[in-house]
Design a protein that fits this description.
The complex is a heterodimer of chains A (338) and B (532). Chain A is α/β, with parallel strands linked by helices and 338 residues long. In chain A, 34% of the residues lie in helices and 23% in strands. Helix content of chain B is 68%, strand content 5%. The chains are: A alpha/beta (338), B mainly alpha (532).
Chain lengths: 338, 532
């Protein structure tokens, strides 16, 4: 698999993406006194047909990354290359064209569907928007849109008889299916999934994950998949990026990461996940990190993990470790492996 | 909408699956709320009455009958009988004052006490009964003068007729064809009028030219103030010369037709008053009468004093009931149109401020803050003073000032909604700002907007009433609930019904509107319902 991905042309390349949210003070003449560095320079590529999982604790900038890539926020710096187009500096029309191929699935199935719209309206909305702008290839008539809605509903496992129903008449899992159907409506190339299963209960989680897997197989989709649940990421991802405080600390093949974590943070993160075997669980030595996650407002001069790292060295305090390839397809940002 | 209803979804058992929208849900809850349903019915009745006012069998709201001033509301008595009673009690009171009508000392004391307290109505009522009793017993007699007065009144009540000219025709003597005069050419009309009066056409032409010039300059005077006489004359001349021939002809026609109507009315009245016709006609009637050899008219006539005023009359003898009904037209229209405009402005500005944010938000909200700082009533009064006092300007003045609250409210709603994931979803799909605002944000704040508007209508009506009460609202002869109440306050003790009926009508409507608003709020937001 590793060989296959490296030789292929990446579908989405993110280069040094930064998303800082300014903190302003002053009454009328606003003055920037600092910034929340939600995403502080990350680079990665996503290859067609793969699933890149991003994992990390709450507040590490996973969701912001996805929203910056989708241009819901204007990135502070960096490049997002998609199909040879830089989304950050793209014109409105180019961006609209590109957005057709980039769709989002959201975390909260209750908040991500407009409660005043029927399922039909929700799923057909992207189609209507693009058909109103005459950007649908090929053009679709109203009847064709109607059949497409039914097709999508069956595809994601919803009864097409429910298309006149409203979101509040569905369960969480069904709502997430509606969200997936909406994301599929325009035949996108890549789907950015922002913790799509974290709000669902475990049995529904597996259903949704299987659905996403099936869709990937059938439609050749590429996923950028966010989760904070390590098991979910392990199950769905081909490659995994571990984020901490707005940067990627480790990027590797999924199996490789879970069996051979290199970065001290990754190790700590993996050791925090319980193992469903009491015998091993009892014997297992957990790495417990001290201190709190530093404020994202702080500007770092050294390693971002320096304050909490159990293996910190003098060198780490003043030098930021670059993402560095340790073995084939395994990159880590740590001075230990230099 | 239509297409969506057609595209029905059926399940595997071929049953139609219908969605249950939030608004449908709210409607279901509203129907369970008894007070709200009653309110809806009341509001519907009010609206129906206001809309159908022109075709309801009521008297005209601006028809002044001098003899019918301040008549009591009565379900059983005609206006003639009421006039008669009024005159009688008047005369009895005079007689009591002159000590011709004697009452016991105890009664005298009570009457004097009433007079001191200013309760004249009680004195009248009492003396009417007492006088009638004594007259029947024979212990009291009318003086000769009084008898004459009463005889005259009786005759007047019996003989006064009121006629309205509905259509006037001229019969062409050669062909025998009848032509409605409103369809005649100007020249023929002038000729017809001259023939009716028996004068040549020249003085008539001079007269109407003069009258039209006068009315035009009066119009100008109403529009612009503070000009000299010469300037007014100049402007009038200018306006007349700007007018096309067709428009000028229209003015002449209106002028002449009004004159013909009044002449025909006089002539018909003269004929009906003659003894011969008085004996033979029965009233009321609605028939065609020939006035001269060539002119005939469709005439509606009724005995003037057969009228019934169920809610009494006002100080000018106008029917209070029809004034209240026509007044509700104005009041409800102001409530609805004012609310509609203010909601429209408020929703658009509020949602733009809330969604776009930043400088736009800052600018709009500072405008709102500044306007909030100005006294609301003063602004309306200034606007009315600048733009002139008519109903349209009243709408305008109320609307430009009352969008503030709703724009703030909508802004708040939209700000809380715009970070919801479904808005992000819409943005990620490339939806335009307009689409996001009007398809996603506004529908989701609609419940708040509807509730607010419903509760806003009464406040508009109150404001209008207050302005009318101050004399800044609707101008006579138009009425609104506020102006009716305002007119009635002067004669509150003597003629309480003039105050009571408009006030009660208004109160019921405002109550209904408020209950409806509360009901809607409970329906849209079931958690907020204050229950035990």
């Amino acid at each position: 698999m590793a060989e296959a991905t490296t030789t292929r042309q990446p579908l989405l390349t993110v280069t040094d993406l930064k998303q800082h949210f300014p903190i302003e003070s002053g009454f009328i003449l606003k003055r920037q006194i600092g910034a929340v560095r939600a995403v502080d320079g990350i680079s990665f590529s996503v290859y067609p047909g793969e699933t890149l999982g991003i994992v990390g604790e709450s507040g590490c900038g996973k969701s912001t990354t996805i929203r910056s890539i989708a241009q819901l926020y204007k990135p502070t710096a960096g490049k997002v290359m998609f199909n040879g187009l830089d989304l950050v500096n793209a014109s409105k029309d180019e961006l609209l064209k590109a957005r057709k191929d980039i769709q989002l699935i959201f975390q909260d199935p209750y908040a991500s569907l407009n409660p005043r719209m029927t399922v039909r309206q929700i799923i057909s909305e992207p189609l209507t928007i693009y058909s109103n702008r005459k950007m649908l290839q090929p053009e679709m008539t109203k009847e064709e849109i109607e059949t497409r809605i039914e097709e999508l509903m069956e595809r994601v496992g919803l009864n097409k008889a429910f298309k006149n129903r409203y979101p509040h008449e569905f369960s969480g899992g069904q709502r997430q299916r509606i969200g997936i159907a909406r994301a599929l409506a325009l035949n996108p190339k890549i789907i950015l999934a922002d913790e799509p299963v974290s709000a669902l209960d475990v049995s529904i989680q597996s259903q949704i994950l299987n659905l996403l897997n099936d869709l990937q197989k059938d439609l050749g989709l590429t996923y950028l998949f966010i989760a904070h649940d390590l098991a979910v990421i392990e199950y769905i991802s081909t490659r995994v990026a571990v984020m901490y405080l707005g940067i990627i600390v480790e990027l590797s093949e999924s199996r490789d990461l879970y069996h051979n974590p290199l970065h001290p943070y990754t190790k700590a993160l993996l050791s925090a996940a319980p193992i469903p075997d009491p015998a091993i669980e009892r014997k297992r030595k957990r790495i417990i990190l001290t201190g709190d996650v530093p404020s994202p407002i702080k500007e770092h001069k050294g390693c971002y993990f320096y304050e909490r790292c159990p293996m910190r060295m003098e060198h780490c305090a003043t030098n930021i470790p670059p993402l560095h390839q340790v073995s084939e397809g395994h990159e880590v940002a740590c001075w230990l492996y230099e | 909408m239509k297409r969506e209803q057609k595209a029905k979804a059926t399940n595997e058992f071929n049953q139609v699956v219908m969605g249950n929208s939030l608004s449908k849900d709210a409607w279901r809850r509203l129907r369970k709320n008894k007070m709200a349903v009653i309110s809806v019915v009341i509001v519907a009745i009010y609206m129906l009455l206001a809309i159908t006012a022109p075709i309801l069998p009521i008297y005209s709201y601006d028809e002044i009958v001098n003899e019918h001033q301040n008549l009591l509301p009565s379900l059983t008595k005609t206006s003639g009988e009421l006039m008669w009673d009024k005159k009688l009690s008047d005369l009895y009171t005079q007689a009591w004052r002159q000590n011709r009508l004697t009452v016991t000392d105890a009664e005298n004391e009570i009457l004097e006490a009433w007079v001191l307290k200013g309760q004249a109505t009680k004195v009248w009522d009492y003396l009417l009964e007492e006088g009638n009793r004594q007259l029947a017993e024979g212990s009291f007699e009318w003086s000769a003068a009084e008898k004459r007065t009463l005889d005259n009144l009786e005759k007047k009540i019996a003989s006064d007729i009121q006629i309205t000219i509905q259509k006037v025709w001229q019969t062409n003597q050669e062909t025998g064809k009848k032509i409605n005069i409103s369809k005649m050419a100007v020249k023929d009309l002038v000729q017809l009028y001259a023939d009716l009066l028996g004068v040549p056409t020249e003085p008539i032409v001079t007269q109407y030219t003069y009258e039209i010039t006068e009315s035009v300059s009066k119009e100008i005077q109403a529009e612009v103030t503070d000009l000299s006489k010469e300037e007014y004359a100049l402007m009038a001349e200018q306006r007349l010369s700007d007018m096309s021939g067709k428009d000028y002809d229209k003015l002449i026609k209106a002028n002449i037709i009004a004159k013909i109507n009044s002449t025909v009315k006089d002539m018909a009245l003269y004929e009906l008053k003659s003894d011969a016709s008085q004996a033979s006609t029965t009233y009321p009637f609605d028939k065609e009468m020939s006035i001269t050899d060539t002119v005939s008219a469709s005439i509606k006539a009724a005995k003037m004093h057969d009228r019934r005023y169920y809610l009494g009359t006002d100080r000018l003898g106008r029917d209070l009931m029809s004034r209240i009904i026509y007044g509700s037209q104005v009041s409800i229209a102001i409530g609805l149109i004012g609310t509609f405009t203010s909601v429209l402005i408020g929703v658009i500005l509020g949602s733009l401020a809330g969604y776009i944010g930043g400088k736009v938000d800052y600018f709009i909200m500072r405008v709102v803050d500044i306007m909030y700082g100005l006294p609301y009533m003063l602004l309306v009064i200034i606007a009315m003073a600048i733009f002139g006092r008519n109903i349209l300007n009243l709408f305008f003045a109320l609307a430009i000032i009352s969008w503030l609250t709703i724009s703030r409210m909508v802004r708040g709603q939209i700000m809380s909604l715009k970070n919801q994931e479904f808005i992000e979803a819409a943005r990620s799909m490339g939806a335009s700002t307009g689409r996001i605002i009007f398809k996603h944000l506004v529908p989701n704040s609609l419940s708040v907007i509807i509730v607010f508007s419903t509760l806003r209508i009464p406040s508009f009506i109150m404001t209008e009433s207050f302005l009318s009460f101050l004399g800044l609202g609707v101008q006579a002869p138009f009425a609104s609930w506020g102006s009716l109440v305002g007119d009635a306050v002067g004669g509150m003790t003597l003629y309480p019904w003039r105050l009571f009926f408009p006030a009660i009508v208004m109160t019921i409507f405002l109550f209904a509107m408020n209950f409806l608003g509360d009901g809607l709020r409970d329906a849209f937001d079931p958690q907020s319902k204050n229950q035990l």
